[in-house]
Model the fold of this input.
Amino acid sequence: MKRGLIVIGMLFGIFGYAQKSTQKSYKKPVKKSVKKTVPATSKKVAAAVVAEVPVEQSIEKVGEKNEHEADTPEQYEIIAQKIIKKNGWIKNRNSSFVRGIEGFVKGVYVGGGKVYVLIEVANRTNINYDVESISFITSPVQVKDRQIEAEEKIFSPIYAIQTESIAKKSREKLLFVFDKFTISDNKNLLFIMSEIDGERTISLDIKPKYIVGAEYVK
Done:
């Protein structure tokens, strides 16, 4: 009888020990898996958000700057709009008349590192004057029926206010902007304007003294 009780007690002890060991081995992996996976996921998401924000902001700033610069007129354009309203400071008859078309050099101005040439053309006929081309070249000066040899140079304006046609019985002002320059005393700057399907070509001499003595304008 005593032996039977001892055997039963040993069996209960072994069974209780087995249950305790099973519970311990089950709890440990659950706690470890929760601690490792949850924090790792939150760190990756936060890093991705921080990396994207600066890129979007930099693109917006560059776009706004380019649009502002494109809408801003150059300084010489603003000055040119002021000069075209002037009557000119050259008062002598520095003009050329060809078949009812008369041209005048009205003034030479300087400002903002540029040279501005103001020309006026009058059409005294009943036929419109359609402009084919306008050019500026240096020409040699004549001294006592003799020309001083000088190399021709073409000057190209960087900006112009001009018309394609001068209507009959009307006047038009033309303005041409150049990078700053001077010419020597043995040359003139020659303004040449030719007509489409016509031979009424106007040539005007812009003397060196007009360029050196150009009127300053802001």
Q: What stands out?
A: The chain has two domains: 17-72, 77-216. The longest strand covers residues 129-140. Residues 17-72 form one domain.
